[in-house]
């Protein structure tokens, strides 16, 4: 959308194709949190920041795994993107900017979001596209799935073939094509093939099917970033899937609710200090567990006395989740039976509970946990299975620092550029979650491409 908007300021020959029958893409489901350094808003609020500090933070948070060239391109141009959004009336939450929320914090307050999450960004972008369509500067084809790219004998991309909702095929020619088809995290097959694990979330946008990945590869491009597959710290699912829904969100942020429960893996072992403040450390610990899965274990007294730990559920509603045959919510009168029901090693679980209870009584938890309110001692006992999963797609189409799609030998494929999640979360966030480093680069790279194709004064 950003590429189309900025290109349409310079030329009236922009064709925007979307498989969905509405504009907006992942902004229909995403939080739309952004990060940008050196913005006007920061200056107005007296926050000193610059792109170098943003870049250093991303390389620190990703432990050097992000793509330096693309992170540079993103962060040195992020402020201009953000300032533009503000000029267009972006309905920002007045609490912003902050250094972090939900993800590992930045060293400075450069994290922003709209009062309506992704909708606040849609409210800026979609009317501008609609206006450009009305002005005849953008031709819009909704409900058109891009099926293939065409090339000339020299290997340059010359256009795209689409299929509309009625099944008719269309061919469009263009000197410049930008692939911006997003990720693949709504496709169980592509997710499994590229990430090596099953897809355990239905949060990504339904059209994130990895088609752009296939199209780019079909003309000589290649995929990268498998080694940076990364997950969020877990979802409460309503079934095995594919693309299972969610029962709710666990409050696993010790800053908001210190944990009363323990977390164990399939071996029954505790694998992380549950009150570890760093969400990045908890995510990395989960990444190393079998199937990126853990169980939250507690007893009757904790269920009765602890503050509710599922966002939006009170204690009675949480208790009710165990009453029916709901998958992944387990209850038993003893730990051995609980472990068998939950699919956790029983000896391991009993050992973990004994060890944890020792820590509660002695004040010396083996893992160094500080919040030790109650032992896990009084049946019935409870366990909830929690699944780590990635909402953003790690693997992406390789591009150079001008966003041209490249071949394995590094040469650019003429006529073809790419932007957004199609480039892979592995590139702009590395093996970590860096706040705002998907949505902001998507907008920024789109803006840069839209601005670069036709000089402003030519108005072709
Ligand atoms: C639940 C959730 C929360 C998130 N929260 C944040 C956040 O707070 N901050 C952040 O930085 N990132 C966040 N992200 C990630 C971020 O929102 C996305 O990476 C980003 O919006 C992707 O933008 P995009 O333009 O590349 O892709 P999309 O917005 O997915 O757009 C791709 C478009 O291409 C279309 N398309 C796909 N295939 C075809 C085809 N074959 N032919 C034609 N059209 C096609 C789709 O319909 C879609 O409209 C979140 C993601 C999710 C799922």
Automatic annotation (TrEMBL):
Record key words, sorted: FAD, Flavoprotein, Oxidoreductase
Domain named FAD-dependent oxidoreductase 2 FAD-binding: residues: 1-435
Keyword Flavoprotein applies: yes
Protein's recorded name: FAD-dependent oxidoreductase 2 FAD-binding domain-containing protein
Gene Ontology molecular-function annotations: oxidoreductase activity
Cofactor requirements of the protein: FAD
Native species: Brevundimonas naejangsanensis
InterPro entries registered for this protein in UniProt: FAD-dep_OxRdtase_2_FAD-bd, FAD-oxidoreductase_2, FAD/NAD-bd_sf, Succ_DH/fumarate_Rdtase_cat_sf
Pfam hit, one: FAD_binding_2
């Amino acid at each position: 959308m950003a590429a189309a908007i900025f290109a349409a300021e310079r030329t009236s020959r922009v064709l925007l194709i979307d498989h969905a029958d509405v504009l907006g893409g992942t902004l229909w489901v995403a939080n739309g949190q952004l990060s940008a350094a050196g913005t006007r808003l920061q200056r107005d609020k007296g926050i000193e920041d610059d792109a170098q500090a943003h870049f250093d933070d991303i390389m620190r948070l990703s432990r050097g795994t992000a793509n330096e060239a693309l992170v540079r391109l993103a962060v040195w141009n992020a402020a201009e993107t953000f300032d533009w959004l503000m000029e267009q009336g972006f309905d920002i939450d007045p609490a912003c900017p902050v250094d972090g929320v939900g993800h590992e914090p930045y060293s400075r307050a450069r994290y922003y979001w709209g009062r309506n999450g992704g909708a606040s960004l849609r409210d800026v972008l979609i009317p501008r596209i609609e206006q450009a369509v009305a002005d005849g500067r953008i031709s819009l084809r909704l409900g058109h799935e891009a099926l293939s790219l065409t090339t000339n004998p020299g290997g340059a991309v010359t256009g795209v073939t689409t299929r509309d909702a009625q099944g008719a095929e269309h061919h469009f020619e263009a000197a410049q094509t930008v692939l911006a088809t997003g990720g693949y995290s709504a496709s169980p097959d592509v997710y499994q093939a590229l990430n090596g694990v099953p897809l355990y979330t239905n949060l990504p946008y339904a059209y994130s099917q990895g088609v752009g990945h296939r199209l780019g590869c079909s003309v000589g491009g290649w995929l990268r970033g498998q080694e940076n597959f990364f997950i969020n710290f877990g979802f409460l699912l309503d079934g095995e899937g594919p693309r299972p829904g969610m029962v709710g969100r666990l409050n696993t942020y010790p800053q908001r609710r210190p944990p009363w429960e323990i977390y164990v893996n399939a071996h029954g072992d505790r694998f992380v200090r549950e009150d570890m403040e760093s969400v990045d450390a908890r995510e990395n610990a989960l990444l190393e567990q079998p199937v990126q899965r853990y169980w939250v274990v507690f007893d009757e007294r904790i269920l009765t006395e602890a503050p509710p730990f599922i966002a939006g559920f009170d204690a009675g509603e949480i208790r009710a989740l165990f009453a029916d045959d709901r998958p992944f919510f387990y209850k038993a009168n003893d730990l051995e039976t609980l472990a068998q029901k939950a699919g956790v090693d029983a000896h391991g679980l009993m050992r973990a509970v004994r060890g944890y209870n020792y820590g509660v009584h002695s004040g010396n938890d083996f893992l160094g946990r500080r919040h030790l309110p109650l032992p896990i001692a009084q049946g019935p006992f409870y366990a909830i299975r929690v699944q780590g999963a990635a909402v953003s797609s790690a693997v992406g189409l390789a591009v150079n620092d001008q966003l041209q799609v490249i071949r394995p030998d590094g040469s650019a494929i003429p006529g073809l550029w790419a932007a957004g999640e199609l480039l892979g979360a592995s590139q702009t966030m590395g093996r970590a979650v860096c706040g705002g480093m998907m949505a902001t680069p998507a907008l920024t790279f789109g803006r840069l491409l839209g601005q670069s194709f036709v000089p402003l004064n030519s108005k072709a």
